[in-house]
Design a protein that fits this description.
Helices cover 11% and strands 45% of the residues. By secondary structure, the protein is mainly β.
Length: 325
């Protein structure tokens, strides 16, 4: 059943009725200064690199609000691209540390969730900017038509989506939706052979990466790649990393850097043998892309190098002797 404002405000119904009686005597409502935004405002997924079950996370954030006592969000999406997974409030939400009246997520409609919180009477209203909730959706990788597009948007403004004062009056606000696209990425596949490594590292990008150009940062347990293209273009970088070359204790331990600035991967998943990572950036050519784990293949020692050289030399001498015979 569709959840309306009265669902959330049951325990403060008297205040709402009183407020409604005063509405006709209220001064004109001025332009909204508060804003509700879904962040990031735009993003996309690469159909040929996105694993089934990948989770999309977006934050719903309020800006410049004054006197926030109750909030509720109605959020909707395209079910051809996404399925509902979870919605929650962060630890530092606007009402953190205070008793609240929660409305459990209403997911009776597959394309929508309604969710909210209110303070108890006597609670301290919030002023400022803060994330209200984080919505998690499952990316559907069986989309029939690619490219495909979806908005993640607010629905039911002032009914399912609203901000209220402690009196029950609405707080005017502007709402900004987000948009998501599902596209194919076209890039070149390159392999990298690392001395002493038992498996190849594979990269794909719409930039230029030279074969066998990966370097190992043994100190920081990282692989370092150089990517070239035209400055200003958007690039993607996809890597298939053998776990016997580089690995991390947990998935959260993986770190990705573009020119030493940490970025959030669009996709990060693994199986028993490989870890796959996908991220994008804007070119300021050349780009140094670094993937950091907690373990990387050990550096060959000088003694081992000498043994390898000696072994190679012995093989050459043996071949020469065989030819003489």
């Amino acid at each position: 059943m569709k959840m309306e404002k009265r669902t959330l405000l049951t325990l403060i119904l008297t205040a709402i009725i009183s407020a409604m009686l005063l509405v006709s005597f209220s001064p004109p409502v001025h332009a909204a200064t508060a804003k509700l935004k879904i962040i990031p405002a735009a993003n996309h997924f690469y159909a040929n690199y996105t694993q089934a079950g990948t989770i999309l996370k977006v934050n719903i954030t309020v800006y410049n609000v004054t006197g926030l006592f109750t909030w509720q969000l109605g959020l909707q999406w395209n079910t051809a691209l996404f399925s509902y997974y979870n919605i929650s409030t962060p630890a530092d939400n606007p009402f953190a540390g205070q008793p609240v009246i929660p409305v459990p997520p209403d997911t009776s409609n597959a394309s929508r969730v309604v969710f909210g919180y209110s303070l108890f009477t006597g609670g301290i209203a919030f002023n400022g900017s803060r994330t209200l909730a984080q919505l998690e959706l499952i990316v559907n990788t069986t989309v029939a038509t690619v490219p495909a597009y979806s908005s993640i948007s607010f629905e039911g403004l002032l009914v399912d989506t609203f901000l209220n004062l402690d009196s029950g009056l609405d707080i005017p606000f502007d709402a900004t939706d987000s948009s998501y696209s599902y596209i194919y990425a076209i890039g070149d596949r390159v392999t990298h052979n690392i001395t002493g490594a038992p498996a190849l590292v594979i990269t794909e990008s719409n930039g230029t990466i030279a074969p066998n150009s990966v370097t190992v940062d043994y100190t920081n347990k990282s692989l370092v790649f150089t990517v070239n293209s035209t400055t200003g273009n958007t690039a993607f970088f996809y890597a298939i990393l053998p776990k016997n070359v580089i690995n991390a204790t947990t998935m959260a331990d993986w770190k990705v850097y573009v020119n030493q600035t940490q970025v959030t991967p669009l996709a990060l998943y693994d199986n028993a043998t490989y870890t796959n990572v996908l991220f994008e950036f804007t070119f300021g050519s050349p780009i140094v892309a670094t993937v950091k784990g907690t373990w990387v293949i050990p550096e060959l020692s000088n003694v081992l190098m000498m043994l390898m050289i000696a072994s190679s030399a012995a093989m050459v001498v043996a071949k020469i002797k065989l030819k003489k015979k």
